[in-house]
Amino acid sequence: MKLDSNNLQGKAYWRSLDQLADTPEFQEFLHREFPENASEMTNPVTRRKFLTLMGASIAFAGLAGCRKPVEKIVPYVKAPENIVLGNPLNYATAMPFGLNSYGLLVESHEGRPTKIEGNEKHPVSQGKGNRFTQAEILNLYDPDRSNAVYKQGKRASWEDFKAAWEVLYKEFASSGGEGLAVLSQSFNSPTLYRLYKEFKKVFPKSTWTAYEPVSDENVYEGLRSLSGKVLQPLYSFDKAKVILALDSDFMMSETNDIPAARGFAKGRAVKDIKDDMNRLYIVEHNYTVTGSMADHRLRLQWRQIPAFVKALAGELVKQGLDVPGVTDGGSSSFDAKWLSAVARDLRKNKTRSLVVAGHRQPAEVHALCALINRALGNEGSTVAYTSVDEAVLPSTGGLMQLAGQMQSGKVKALIMLGGNPVYDAPADADFSAAMQKVETTVHLSSRVDETSAQALWHIPAAHFLESWGDVRALDGTPSIVQPLIQPLFNGVEEVRMFHLLATNTDKKTYDVVRETWQKQLSGKDFEKAWRKALVDGVIPTRVRRSAKVSFKNGQINLSAAPFNAQPATAGNPEVVFQASAGMFDGRYANNGWLQELPDPITKLAWDNPVLVSPRTAKELGVSNEDVVSLRLNGREQELPVWIVPGHADNSLTLTLGYGRTRAGRVGNKVGFNVYSLRSSKTFYGAEGASLTRTGKTYTLANTQDHGSMEGRPIVREADLAEYVQNPDFAKEMVVHPPLESLWDEYPYDKGYQWGMTIDLNTCIGCNACMIACQSENNIPVVGKELVHQGREMSWIRLDRYFSGNLEDPEVVYQPVACQQCENAPCEQVCPVAATNHDEEGLNVMVYNRCIGTRYCSNNCPYKVRRFNYFNFTKDYPETIKMAQNPDVTVRSRGVMEKCTYCTQRIERAKISSKNEGRELRDGEVVTACQQTCPTDAIVFGNILDPESQVSKIKAQNRNYELLAELNVKPRTSYLAKLRNPNPELENYNA
Amino acid sequence: MSVTVKNNSITPVLEEPPLITGNQTFASITEKISSITETKPGKGWALGFSIAAFLALILFGSIGFLFWEGVGIWGLNNPVSWGWAIVNFVFWVGIGHAGTLISAILFIFRQRWRTSINRFAEAMTIFAVICALIFPGIHVGRVWVAYFMFPIPNQMEMWPNFRSPLLWDVFAVGTYFSVSLMFWYTGLIPDLATLRDRAKSMLRKRVFGILSLGWRGGNKQWKHYELAYLLLAGLSTPLVLSVHSVVSTDFATSVIPGWHTTIFPPYFVAGAIFSGFAMVLTLAIIARKIFGLEHIITINHFEKMNKIMLLTGMMVGYAYGMEFFIAWYSGNDYETFTFLNRAFGPYAWAYWTMITCNVFIPQLFWFKKIRRSIPAMFVITIFINIGMWFERFVIVVSSLSRDFLPSSWDYYAPTIFDISLLVGSFGLFFTLFLLFIRYLPMIAMSEVKGVMPQADPHYYEKHD
User: Fold this and answer.
1) How close A629 gets to chain B, by Cα (Å)?
2) A854 vs B contacts (CB less than 8 Å)
């Protein structure tokens, strides 16, 4: 079947923004079009309309004129090389993310990318992924992406734009670029940087600004203040014995999250009582995933953290360390015992300790941390620096300056390359108004978003999986970005756009990128080197790690304002902005997987309430789901409240990335836009907020209602010392009568017997496995209302439990998927035998046989079975259909589904081993969750093979089976969690 | 002739009060009961029928929408995969218990007072079981393949899973329904013949002629008939115990705390009889009033039923108590939690509704005055019906909503479609019931005649 794009073209009316200006009816229609769908997503009353979620109809999907790959119903007459139908191929590419990049391996079925995994050769992904890399597949196929060039809302063509640019190019070239401004996102790419340089050569008087709503600008600023250079710190968490994280969720929301989590887990891995374990201290205002892993957590207001660092530096100096520029920490109200214990621990572990601060902390804190790390002798072991050369760094100040110039009419033409400043620029930039003052505005964007809607020109951007390009990882390792598919929506690649801007010529991006590398890879056989770069996904380079950089301005001004901030009080609470765990800065707003991914701490999906501590909520007289009106800097935003145990008092956390109006059918009107409260001066945190109750309530959807384990031995946990004393504590936590069966049980003693272990000591709760599973197993998204009802479909979920007191609890995570019980209670009760055991110990679901009595789900003690209450997959747009894994059945209404241990992967591996006439090797079958887990907490394999990794882990003393006392004989087992508290702080409650 | 003449005036002290009052004769009984089916019904019936039929339409409308959209229109969620549909199923099956109990067990125990109410109760059983059978049928996710439940030979050589209690349900309830239907129909034959004989219109003659299967009332026919009836009664007796025992295994064989209990079979049977009697009584009180059957269904009948309700109510109460005791005595933390959660958790309101309606309120039947007060017992039976519905709700929903892992706990709340199906099922029940009392003899004439004084072969000798 070939889609006739000509016939579909007429359906593209909703894109015809010219009509927007024409008739008020159309304006209203346009306005309603997607918000209406979206309002149903958030409206608890209407039913499942959302399921059109990925749905609505093809007509609205803007398929018009898209260059969709031709769908052929005849087999290849001449088969392309390397393609065996049904066998996927993997290609290496890389995903740019700010200044960083993730190296990826993308699975492609007959030219259709379906699954993203990490590239083992890449230093940032190390074969692993996070929620964002996994979810990019859905972004690629997002039916709401723009499919054409628009001028003033009217459909135009790329040729039109080129003609228009030619005029501008000549005009500005003659004036040296006076009045020409470019606003891009930050990038770290040899080719883009080369084109950027060329652009600057042609237009020396032009301005080029990069802006990121969430970035490491403060880190660079802090290090620049010391060294005068742009330095990228590279941490080796695996080498650190003692880690102090200051407002740093380094395992999940800081740059280089995957290597950090991996390194941390490596330092935490315990096989036996003889093994040592690192120790993590954290000081933070809101609970984070990193905080949940901490052995000691100090709950502190965000604005107090600089003062804490200062006090710590003072304490270190007091204990005999030389921190340049620090004589004493000043008088502080911080817990002296905690402070001195941490300082002592850091000092005791000189050269093996690490102090890291989060990107939200001011530059001064980063500078001081660098000095502390140097004083502790950590450079060269846990800390290294590399210079960032071919990159354009983000600058909020630069954006403000640009906005000022725009306001004053100095900017004649503004080219915006990516980003969405109308939505995410600081409110005091008043970017939207400033844009009106610019004659020509061009926006390259994947969708007609808030910014494109106001721009003169909208250029559809190609996804990175559709583009040629290159990127560098933060440690300098370059990768070639190679496309997996032709642009689905007529997207223009970034390199193509840059090239056009710089040279006024349109060139094939493949050639442009090769041109860059022809120079860089000179001296070698270029074709060979190029091909190797594409195959490997990385270009081997000597990574310029330098342990020693000169901090020639190595003085720190401890009288700087942040170090002396007063604590926030009930009358003057602080406001802190955080990037969303799913939406990040808002760029993923139209991604259903990420919208439905629960926040790791609050377990809320589809929303961003203001987070407060239990005490503050009590003082304010608000409870969960109460709507408050938050005033800050003279601006106001209404949003609901959510209470987070362990949050600092008198502190309000706002999550960025929600409340978009032009994200698409999924992301429109989801949550609340808090950018409206954000100003450039108080970029990450502010004071002077006031909060009033409105008397309204707002329903929030969470995936876990109950946070306490009720004293049940679910997540089993001990301190390292207790574990050493009693290595079998995990097994001994449950006493039960001997488990006997009434009949002879099937022995499961032949062939492969699959089993899994999940190490709770290294599971950080980052949610990457959830998205990996969703992508691999075609799991539908159900929408806010159904999540609220408790019908989310995730096959693997991350249970989060609080323990201890409400103000200052501990958090533990437990990933729970089907445990593949040998004595499965679900199987016995199914009246039609739709769920059975196979001879390899898998509890298999036969979708065709399932009639949907849901008895199995009732009888599952782990409640891991998920039911298709509606036909969630019926109305998928064509492009979303392309995102489905062809190896996994797309389920329809009325059937039960659940984790299968990725049976399709097992079968594929078995087939290839059979073809080669051999047994499967250990590690040959990798489940999707295991594959992506940054900390390798999940291990899967044949438990009959005593040499397999999973068997060895199951033999460890921390191994226990969840609810084993029911005699269900689960094949998944857990390794008990350990904490390594400082004996000095034993039984100490900060 | 005999030496000693039985003196009619010396009534043994222990002799029961007469079952039928008002100096009825065979003819008056026939007239009274047959005429209801032969004359145009009153406005009350028409009104009741319109309401019931309307509600039944709501049921079918809701089912249509359910089939169209999927079971997601209900309030079900992940821990609570069974909601009102299964609650309603168990509730209606329970209601359906009284009929067979009254017909079969009381027949075998020669409880002659049953004759006035047995037809009624049997009809009620059948209608209740029809209502019950709807729910497991419609509650599956893919109704179009619900037939997989039946052991139908097929090309896949695929049998249902005989280990599943849901399959046992299919057989147990199916058997119960067919035997109850047969039993009811067999009992109807002599009365259908009476209606045939009285029929004036051709249509009635034809219909009742076919339905009465050539009944002539000859001795041989009566002999075979009574043997058949006795055999069917014998066949039905174990079913009274088996149906709800099997239904209870849906829960008892599972691993869920609050379900996994060996007390369930007797507890469910007692509860079923309890609720069934309450429903029979509720209906009988209304029908008796409307059709003026006070002499046939007397206050003595009611009192006996109230006593049975008092007994079964206490059995149910004992079961509630025993569940708590075992939860504590077993030392199983999950079990203990489940029961504390029932009484004090988010569904405590449902639990205490159940306890109040099923345990406390029926205690009023200790007072003879209340046992014999029609308004009082009417109200109490309604309470029992409510309480017994809540019992099933508590068992099904509260156990599921909080089981082993607190992470998956969630609260279940019904939607409008849960409610419309329950209300609609009452509509269907009353529609069928009103049609029954309109077109068929609601009291077993031939059996009532058998317990009248005139039926005594020596009755007329007394008047020498």
Assistant:
1) 29
2) 76, 81-82, 141
Which A-chain residues 699-758 have CB contacts (< 8 A) with chain B? 704-712, 714
Nearest to B70 among A790, A894, A966 (CB): A894
Q: Higher confidence at residue A56 or residue B29?
A: B29
The answer to whether the predicted template modeling score (pTM) of the entire model surpasses 0.95 is no
Q: Tokens 């239907």, residue? A: B181
Angle at CA of residue A484, ends A478 and A488, nearest 5° = 125
Q: What is the pLDDT of residue A60?
A: 39
d(CA B331, CA A216): 55
A42 pLDDT band, cuts 50/70/90, is very low
Buried b or exposed e, range A379-400, using 16+ CB within 10 angstroms: bebbbbbbebebbbbbbbebbb
B141–A851: do the CB atoms touch at under 8 Å? yes
- pLDDT recorded at residue A44: 40
Domain boundaries, chain A: 1-83, 149-215+394-536, 217-391, 569-702, 717-739+757-979
- Picking from A858, A865, A867 by the largest number of B CB atoms within 10 A of its own CB, the best residue to mutate is A858
- Contact assignment for B254 to A858 by CB distance below 8 Å: yes
Query: What is the interface size between A and B, counted as CB pairs within 8 Å?
Result: 165
Residue A455 CB-half CA count within 13 A? 29
> Which of A714, A855, A867 faces B405 most closely, judged by CB atoms?
A714
Which phi-psi region, left, alpha or beta, contains residue A848 (left: φ > 0; alpha: ψ -120 to 50)?
alpha
* Partner residue facing A799 (CB), from B82, B158, B407: B407
Query: B158 to chain A nearest CA, in Å?
Result: 9
**pLDDT > 90? residue A544:** no
Structure token pair of residue A491 = 């997207």
**B141·A705 Cβ contact <8 A:** no
- Letter for the amino acid at A941? G
Q: Answer yes or no: CATH 3.40.50.740 is held by domain A149-215+394-536.
A: yes
Q: Is A569 left (phi over 0), alpha (psi -120 to 50) or beta?
A: beta
Of A711, A853, A857, Cβ closest to residue B166: A853
* Terminal Cα distance for chain B, rounded: 11
**CATH class, A717-739+757-979 region:** alpha beta
How far, in Å, CA of A248 to CA of A373, rounded? 15
The kind and range of the H/E element at B422 are helix B416-439
Region class of B461: left (phi > 0), else alpha (psi between -120 and 50), else beta: alpha
Q: What does the buried/exposed string (b/e) look like for A552-564 if buried means 16 or more CB atoms within 10 Å of the residue's CB?
A: eebebebebebbe
Share of chain A above pLDDT 90, in %: 65
The counts of H helices and E strands in chain A are: 30, 41
pLDDT at residue A75 in the model: 60
pLDDT tens digits, one per residue of A774-805: 999 999 999 999 999 999 999 999 999 998 88
**What is d(CA A773, CA A853) in angstroms, rounded to the nearest whole number?**
25
Quickly tell me which residue has 């009619």 as its tokens: B8
SS3 A756: strand
**DSSP-derived secondary structure letter, A469:** E
Domain A569-702 fold is Barwin-like endoglucanases (2.40.40)
CATH topology for A217-391 is: Dimethylsulfoxide Reductase; domain 2 (3.40.228)
Does B70 sit within 8 Å of A893, measured CB to CB? yes
Phi-psi region of A418 (alpha: psi -120 to 50; beta: other; left: phi over 0): left
Please state the ipTM of this predicted complex. Answer: 0.90
A828 touches chain B (CB under 8 A): yes
